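Why run this: before we spend reagent on co-expression, it is cheaper to look at a predicted model of the complex and decide which construct boundaries make sense. The entries below are exactly what would go into the expression plan.
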Amino acid sequence: MQAEEKFTEMTWPASPEKATLEAKNKFLGFWFFLGGETVLFGSLFATYLALKDKVPDSSHPLAKDLFEMPLTFLATMFLLVSSLTSVYAMYHMKNYSFQRMQAWLLITVFLGACFLGLEVYEFRNYVHEGHTFTSSAFGSAFYALVGFHGGHVAFGLLWILSLMLRNAGRGLNLYNAPKFYVASLYWHFIDVVWVFIFTVVYLMGMVG
Amino acid sequence: MENTRQTSANPRIDLKYRRKKNAEEMRYQIISFALMIFLTLIAFGAVYYEGFSHWFVVPFIMLLAAIQVVFQLFYFMHMSHKGHETPALFLFSGLTVALITILTFLTITWI
Amino acid sequence: MSTIAQKKGFGATVWDYLTTVDHKKIAILYLMAGGIFFLAGGLEALFIRIQLAVPNNDFVSAGLYNQILTMHGTTMIFLAAMPLIFAFMNAAVPLQIGARDVAFPFVNALGFWLFFFGGIFLNCSWFLGGAPDAGWTSYASLTLNAKSHGVDFYILGLQISGIGTLIGGINFLVTIVNMRAPGMTYMRMPLFTWSSFVTSALILFAFPALTVGLFLLMFDRMFGGNFFDVSAGGNTIIWEHLFWIFGHPEVYILILPAFGLFSEIFATFSRKRLFGYSSMVFATVLIGFLGFMVWAHHMFTVGMGPIANAIFAVATMAIAVPTGIKIFNWLFTMWGGSIKFTTPMHYAVAFIPSFVAGGVTGIMNAVAAADYQYHDSYFVVAHFHYVIVGGVVLALLAGTHYYWPKMFGTMLSEVLGKITFWLFLIGFHLTFFIQHFLGLMGMPRRVFTYLPNQGWDTGNMVSSIGAFFMGIAVIIMLINVVVTQVKGVKVGNDPWGDGRSLEWSIPSPPPFYNFKQLPLVRGLDPFWIEKMEGKKGMTPAEPLGDIHMPNASFLPVTISFGLFVAAFGILFHVDDKPWALPVMIIGLGITLVSMLIRSVKDDHGFHIHKEDLENEDKGVKA
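The model came back. C-alpha cells follow.
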C-alpha cells in the first residue's frame, strides 16, 4: 500500500479518488450512504407536504404569508455557486495542485457559511412573525425539513474545514485525496436537496 | 491491492493528455453550471410573474428542478463517468422509495 | 502477530474484544449480545404466557403486562433477531466471497457497539420508571400521551441501535461489491451472500424512514413539536406510514438471510447443487423489491380507502410468487439428493411446512376485506409468529449449529441438538397453531387477561404449555454450548464433510487474515468443485505476499458510549432536571471528540510479512 507515498504531478494517478482499494470502498460506501440519505430527505419532504399549512387556527401565518423571494434567491445563489467552486477544487485535486484546491475549498466554505447565516436570519424573522417550531404542525414540519438540511450544511462546513486544516501541512496523497473527493460529493448532494427545497417549499409555497 | 497507475511510456505526454482532458471536463462543468443558473432564474421568474396559473407553475418548476438535479448528479457528481453503475442503481432505488413515500403522504394520510 | 493461538489472560481477552475490528470476533460479539437479548425476550414471552395461561390471572398487572408485551416485541425484532442475523453475516459473508476482511472494519465494530449500547439503553428503562408500553409499533396516538419515560427510552434506544444497523448494512453492501476474490462473479456468490446483499440494501433504504419517524416522535414528546398532535394541525397517520415503510421491509430484512442460511444447509446436506440457483437469486431480489411496495397492508383498517387497500392487497399477494419459487427450489434440491439428517438439516426440513403455514395465513391477511375480521386478533399473532419463529428463529438455531464449528472450532453435540430441535418444534406448533383459532374465535391481541367461559380457556393453556417446551429447548441448547466448549474438541476445515463454499476451505476458526492467499474461484460452490477434482483445498489466485490488515481501535466503544450518555441527558431534560443538560453535552462531547480523533489520526493498518506467514506454515507442519 502506497497510501502515504509522496507524489509528483507526473506520478499522480488519473483518478486518485479510486486509486486504492480503501479509496474504492470509501467512494462506493459514500454513494450508498447518499442513497439512504435520499430516503431520509424523501420522508422529510413527504412529512412537510402532508403538514403544509396545517395550523391550529387562522391567526397562524401560512406559507404564502411567510416566504420572501429575494432572500430565497440569494440563498440559492450562494449554494449553487459553492457547488461550482467545489467542482473547481476537485479539478485542482486531479491536477495535483494542492494550494489551489485549498483556495477553492475555502471559497466553498465561505459561501456555505453565508448560506447558513442567511438561513439563521430568515428563521429569526419567521419566529418574530409567530411561525415557530412549536406553534403548529406546519411549523414543526418546516423547521424539521429545512433545519435538517441546514444541519447538513453545518456539518459539511466542519467536515471540509477539518479536512483542510488536517492536511494543510502535508499536501495531497492517496490517503486523503478520496476524503476530499467524498466531502465534495456530500456538498453536491446538499445542493441537490436544496434545489428541491427551494422549489417545493419556497416557490410552491409562494404560489400557494 | 497495489496501485494501478496508467502511465504510458512517456509520462510527459500522458500528463499533457490528462491535463487537457481535465480542462475539457471543467468546460462541461461550467456549461452545466450556467444552465443550472438559467433554470433557477426561469423557476423564480415563473413564480414572480404571477400571471401563470397554479396548475402550470407547479409542474413546470418541478420539471426544472428535476432537470437541474440531473445536471448536478451527472456532471458535478460525475455520474456520467464509467464506474458509476452501482452508485446510480442505489441512488435511483433510494429515489424510488422516496418518491413512493411522498406519493403516499400526498394521497392516503387523510388529508 | 503470528502467535494468535497463544493463551491470553482474561483482561487481555476482554480488551481484545473491546477493540477488535476483525469480522469474526465481531460475529462472536453479535452472537453473544444477540443471544443474551434473545434470552431476555424469551423470558418476557414466558411471562406473557404465564399471565394468559388461565382466565382472570393476576400474575402481572395490566400496566406491567403492557411493558412486557412491548419489550418482548421490540427486543426480539431489534435486539435479538437483527444482531443474530448480523452475527452470521459477519461470520460467513467475508469468508464466502474470499475476502480478508470487510470493506470498513472500523465501521463494522462501530455498528456493533451502537447496537449494543442502544439495546442496553432501552433495557435501562426497566429500572428507571418503567419500560415502554405502547406496543412495538409505538403508534403516535398512544405514545404522545404516555406518561412514563418508557416511550422515550424506546425512541432514543432504537435511534442509537438503528444507526448501528444502517452503517452495518452499508458495510456489507460495499464488502460484497468490492471485496470478492478473483473469479467470484455475482452469479457465483453463495445464496447466503446474495441474501445478505439484498438484506443490506433493504436496511439502507428502510432504516432512514425509521430514523425520521423516531426523530419526529422525539421532537413531539421532548421538544414541543406538533407532527402528530391533531389539535395543532398534526396528523397521527404519518407515524403509522413512516413506521411501516420501515417496518415491512424490516420483516424481509429478517427473513431473507434466513432463506439464505437454509439454502446453504439444503445444498450442503443434500450433497447437491442448489436447484435453480439463478431463479433463487431472482426471487431474492424480487422479494426485496416487493418488500417496499406492501407496507400499507398493516394499515388496512386505518381508512385509507378502497383503492389503496386494493393496490396493497394485490401487491402483498404477489410476494407469494417469488416465495413459492424458493419453496419449490428447496424441495427440488432435496429431491434425488443423498440427504444427511444433521441437526441443521432437521431445522431446514421443519422450516418448509412451518413457514408455508405462515405464508398461507399471510395471504389470508392480505385480503383487505377479510383482514377487517382478523385485524388485532390472535390470528395475526399466530401468523407473524409462524413466519418469524417458523422462519427466522428456526434459521438462527439452524445457523448456530451449522456455523458453530466455523466460528468456534468445536462441534455442538448432535444428540443434544436434535433434542433441542424436537422440543422447540413441538413447542412452537403447540404455542402458535392454536392461536389461529383463538383469533378466529374473537380473542383480541394485546389484552392482559380475559374472562372465563368464552371458549378460550383450553386454547390459552395449550399455548402456554407450548411456550415452556420452547423454553426448555433453549436451555438444553445452552447446556449443549457449555458442554461443547468445556470439552473443546477441535475440528478441521470442513467439519460437516460436505462444505461447498469457500468458508469450509480454511481452518476453523480461520486465522485472523482468513486467506493466506486469495483463492481462485472457478464456479458456483468453488470448494465443492475442487473436492470433486480430488484436490484438498483451493487453488491460490496470487503468490504468497504481504497481507494488509486494519488496526484495532477502542474508538467504536467510546463513540457509542458517548451517545448512550447523551441519551440519558436528552431523556431527563424533559423533567427539568438540572443535571440533564450537562450530561447531554458531556455525552455528545465524548462522541464528537472520539470522531475527531478518528478523523485526525491516520490509520494505515499494518502488514503481516510474507516471512511470518511462511514460518507459521512450517510451525504447523513441525
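Residues 62-207 of chain A form a domain with the Four Helix Bundle (Hemerythrin (Met), subunit A) fold (CATH 1.20.120.80). The radius of gyration of chain A is 20 Å. Bring this page to Monday's planning discussion.
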